[in-house]
Amino acid sequence: MPSEPPVEPQKTRIQARSRRQAMDWSLVLASQGIEAFIEHTDSNWELLVPVSEYDHATAAIRQYRHENRHWSWRRQVFKGGLVFDWASLSWVILLIFFAWLGSQHDLKARGILDTSMTGRGQWWRIFTAIWLHADVEHLATNAAIGFVLLGLTMGRFGTGIGLLGAYLAGALANFVECRMPAEPHYSLGASGMVMGSLGLLATQSFFLLRTPYGRKYLARGVAAGLMLFVLFGLAPGTDIVAHFGGFVFGLAIGGMLSFSRAVAHKPAFNFLCGCVLVMLIIIPWWKAIRSAM
């Protein structure tokens, strides 16, 4: 006998104010494994979810709205709903500050990534080297590209989390460079951190992996990140090891953050990450200055 067709689960409706809001909420529900369909009726936008998942869905949406309250530095850009965090400008200002400070004092000798000195215990150089640049052109290139990529990364993952994640990716890339068996090597610049932010951005669709269409978006996101990495990270005369390491570590950190979205956008966690970032700037430079006395 022919089998009976499966019974469709009963649906209930969740009202949204706009198409953009309905799309955002559908992604939130997809990250929780809840299948939702967007429906437009007259001037209303609605999400259709299974009745059995209604309480879970509304709770997820409430949490999302609470964790993404409006902040004046964060602005939605492009039609895709990308959020740009203008707080990335503070990172650019900090780069310029260190460039000015380096012109007044010899910071390069104290903070450059010297693989031989790092091997002798001067671990802080993997952090301090990020804030130093060879010349104005080097600084301007990293500042311009980093301003855009970090702004999008901070908009996606949160201000403190995105900035700390990219910073750690750059520092870890420097650490790997120090562990490679080679002649003593010198390196400086924020390009590893910039490539780390690109790696973080390439993972922003990882949380959709559990959905039926997740693999398609995941492949596209990583492919786009790789193409941008080839464009910016493999230019002649650049530190390819640091660039590749930053990108790979950015992918790893972004992947972990994408599977823990409930934690990533919490204001308290962003504040904690911001405090950790400040300490990872102050302590290495304090050690660098003291070592030169």
Description:
With 293 residues, the chain is mainly alpha-helical. The chain folds into 2 domains: 11-67, Hypothetical protein rpa1041 (Alpha-Beta Plaits); 82-291, Rhomboid-like fold (Up-down Bundle). It has 13 helices and 7 strands. The protein has helices at 19-31, 54-67, 88-104, 107-111, 115-119, 125-128, 136-157, 159-179, 191-202, 214-233, 240-258, 261-264, 267-291; strands at 11-16, 37-41, 44-50, 74-77, 82-85, 113-114, 186-187. The strands form 3 sheets. Strands 1-3-2 form a 3-stranded antiparallel sheet. Strands 4-5 form a two-stranded antiparallel sheet. A hairpin with a 4-residue loop joins strand 4 (74-77) and strand 5 (82-85). Helix 3 packs antiparallel against helix 7 (136-157). The longest helix is centred in the C-terminal third of the chain and has 25 residues, at 267-291.
Low-confidence stretches: 1-7
What series of H and E elements makes up the topology? EHEEHEEHHEHHHHEHHHHH
C-alpha Rg (nearest Å): 22 Å
Helices and strands: which structural class?
Answer: mainly alpha
Q: How many individual domains?
A: 2
Could you name the CATH homologous superfamily of the largest domain?
Answer: Rhomboid-like
CATH class (first level) name of the largest domain: Mainly Alpha
Strand percentage: 5-15%
Main β-sheet: number of strands, strand sense, barrel status? 3 strands, antiparallel
What's the tally of helices? 13
CATH topology of the largest domain: Rhomboid-like fold
Mean pLDDT: 80
Judging by the overall fold, what is the CATH architecture of the largest domain? Answer: Up-down Bundle
| Number of β-strand runs | 7
Roughly how much helix do the residues carry, as a percent range? Answer: 55-70%
Biggest β-sheet: strands ordered side by side in the sheet = 1-3-2
How far is the first residue's CA from the last residue's CA? 89 Å
